[in-house]
Design brief:
The chain is an all-alpha fold. It has helices spanning 3-18, 25-31, 38-44, 47-72, 81-98, 100-110, 117-139, 146-168, 176-187. The longest helix has 26 residues, at 47-72.
């Protein structure tokens, strides 16, 4: 790997180990195998831009892995939509367990948006892609479909809330069955 790739890999390790706010330039360069501090400015302009890029790449990797996991689950065309919802959320929750450090780092960045415009802008851009991607992966809606924005926003809100609960109190966080049962109650449509 080159310095740029080493810095991104080091920044990912720091995000997972120390979080966004507590990671220093020295931490990143040490985790990158001793790459010089000046290389951060040369390749990224700032520590924040590097951390944002590292988090972006880690999130994209998670999204790709989640898409593959969801695609690997056989879809029963006869299944009730809420049953398909439950199966999909079981995969999402399972992926969270494997990527807990990524979610902790993401919530750390969310905590910084009040004081870091660059982090806020990064997250805003990521939200747009995530909304449309979740709508496509979870419901099959084409991102160009006008309903994809609303459905994706619902999925993103649910995802963020569920993952926050898993970070705070994993023993009592909702299961995929809990989510499907709640949606059935809210919508007035029994799960069949």
């Amino acid at each position: 790997m080159g310095n740029r790739e080493d810095l991104i890999a080091g920044a990912k390790r720091c995000l997972y180990d120390k979080g966004y706010a507590r990671t220093s330039i020295r931490d990143i360069t040490a985790a990158a195998g001793g790459v010089s501090m000046a290389a951060i400015g040369y390749h990224f302009g700032s520590k924040e831009a590097l951390l944002n890029e590292a988090l972006s790449q880690a999130s994209q990797e998670w999204g790709e892995q989640l898409g593959q996991a969801l695609a690997a689950v056989p879809a029963d065309p006869e299944a009730h939509p809420l049953q398909r919802f439950e199966v999909a959320w079981a995969q999402i929750i399972k992926s969270f367990e494997l990527h807990r450090p990524l979610w902790a780092a993401t919530f750390d960045v969310i905590g910084q948006v009040q004081h870091a415009e660059q982090a806020r802008a990064y997250l805003a851009t990521g939200l747009e892609h995530a909304r449309l991607g979740l709508a496509q992966v979870l419901t099959g809606l084409d991102p160009a479909d006008p309903d994809a924005w609303a459905v994706g926003g619902f999925c993103q809100a649910l995802l963020t809330g569920v993952m926050a609960q898993y970070l705070i109190d994993p023993e009592r966080a909702p299961t995929s069955h809990d989510l499907a049962a709640a949606l059935a109650l809210i919508s007035g449509r029994p799960m069949a």
